[in-house]
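Quick start: what a row looks like.
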Amino acid sequence: MYYTAMPKDGQVIDDQTWQDLAMDDVFRKIDRAVAMPGRQVLYARLRFYEAREEELAERSRQYSIFRKEIGLREQIQLQLCRLRVSGMEWVAPLILNPFPRRPKYVWLLYVLSIASFLCLLGIALYGGLVVPALLLVLVNAVTHVSLSRNLGPYFRGFSKIARLLAVAESLSKVKGSEGLPQSGYLRGVRDKITLLRRRLAWFTVDRQSASDLTQAIFEYLNVFFLFDLQLYFRSLPKLEEHRATLIRIFDAVGSIDAAMATASYVEGLKLCSTPRLIAARRLETVEMYHPLVRDAVSNSISLDARSVLIAGPNMAGKTTFIRTIGINLILAQTLNICLARSGVFPRAVVRSAIRREDNLLEGESYFYTEISRIFEFIKEGDNGSLCVFLIDEIYRGTNTVERIAASASVLRYLAQRQIVLATTHDQELQGLLIDACEMYHFDDRVLDGQYGFDYHLRSGPVYSRNAIKLLELSGYPEAITAEATAMADRLDASQKKLDQLKN
């Protein structure tokens, strides 16, 4: 909800790329946050490209602090545990959006409250006030119920803001936190924190866990004297005045938790490094791997102002590899980490066309959806900003001849302007794009009658066939596999003759 409510004034990872790369799963893998503010800030960090080098360096510095200073980490975690209560997820949208304006009739609430109090007080002196008192109580009860129906969430939200402020004040006093700029900021606004906590003190009482008598007292105070409504409207001006401070306090508390979560994640990785980000079409990784694949095979690649076409059979690792590139590019530009021995990455926007489906509700076919997506790539690639495009099996929703022709033209056009990592089953594309792209491939292996893959990226094109062999190993009748093999040989021979005639 923090990300949703935030202004999108920077470059964000678009929703399609986020889904294609399974970034929700990556987020859950990294998320070791103690409380909701940390979880929300961590998610927002992963959605925004961070352009400031000093901010990325600061994040890495804090990871180092939390990995080394166990005592400091435990002190902070102890305070953050106080935020592990239901409803904390609503604090972010509450403070990021303007508070409701005070209505013009607020003065009437004070009049009703005072009149009710005077009538109840005067009953002992003059019994005739019973009827007016009952009428006032009825009016106040109706007012309380009708207004609280809409403002109730704010009452509960204010109690969570007060809890956040209490934890922020405690974090500002943690010994050893002087090296954290967030703690420095919280110490600098401690007087404002105290002021805001006083304003919200009424809403911090935990009424649900209180005794029945205490709950009844609160209810009578609200019905007779409209306490919740009065204090709510009295608090609004001060909260609105300090809303920017509240947002920064939330971000300070959440970013400490997010940094600790990332540090914990990095601590458990088999291999992780700080990437080098450059403003050039260069991508170089050594032993890079996918964060979601168990016992993932590491691969390396080096591209200098070049794009790459990756060929190979199904299930060999092509799509996983370009996803690995995309995920690490995002992690490098958001958390300043990469899952590799080393990595040099361009400061580039990542766009993908991997998981594509027919949009039945809007009547869009699989092929048309892909056309629309890649046309977005073309327009973005022409605007001058540096991009990395991840394209899996381009135009696989149309016939072979047109697919190869269109694929070759589009990939060549994009590769001349941006970095493209594309996968393909079409061997013909390798020959058509040999001058525009570097050629890599994944290969299959048959060992002891078992068909499988080693998932290692290899340079150069590939011309092997595996579909018929896979049918054979899966137990298909020999009549089918033998006929398929003979037919494939004839088609290959025909294609070679055509190629010779063309030459």
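That is the whole record. The mean pLDDT is 85. The radius of gyration is 31 Å.
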